[in-house]
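Example for tutorial group B:
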């Protein structure tokens, strides 16, 4: 049996190179972890799609099941789950997140 929420999430993840499921929006993050995640992506100067989980309770719960990861924000690059803000920060500080964006062909923000 397919889960319609998981299908919606898969569609979002599959149609965008970089997707951040977050609380709030990039212009008005609603938690410190989401704010940190946005700041990292902006420092990397990559275009990304954001999904405000506070605006859609089905997505808010469904994304945790979809990734088998209990917290938000969640970052996806080229359809693959990367992690939350702590993992993003560790990867960014080690240069690994920049390398991932380059290796996967993620385009710079316009």
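The residue assignment follows.
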């Amino acid at each position: 049996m397919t889960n319609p929420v998981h299908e919606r999430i898969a569609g979002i993840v599959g149609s965008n190179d970089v997707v951040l499921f977050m609380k709030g929006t990039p212009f008005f993050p609603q938690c410190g972890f989401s704010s940190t995640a946005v700041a990292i992506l902006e420092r990397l100067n990559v275009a990304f799609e954001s999904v405000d989980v506070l605006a859609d309770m089905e997505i808010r719960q469904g994304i945790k099941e979809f990734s088998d990861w209990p917290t938000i924000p969640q970052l996806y690059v080229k359809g693959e789950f990367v992690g939350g803000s702590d993992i993003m920060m560790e990867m960014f500080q080690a240069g690994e997140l920049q390398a991932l964006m380059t290796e996967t062909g993620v385009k710079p923000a316009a």
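Strands lie at 18-22, 24-25, 28-29, 49-52, 74-77, 80-83. Compare this with the pattern of hydrophobic and polar residues in the output above.
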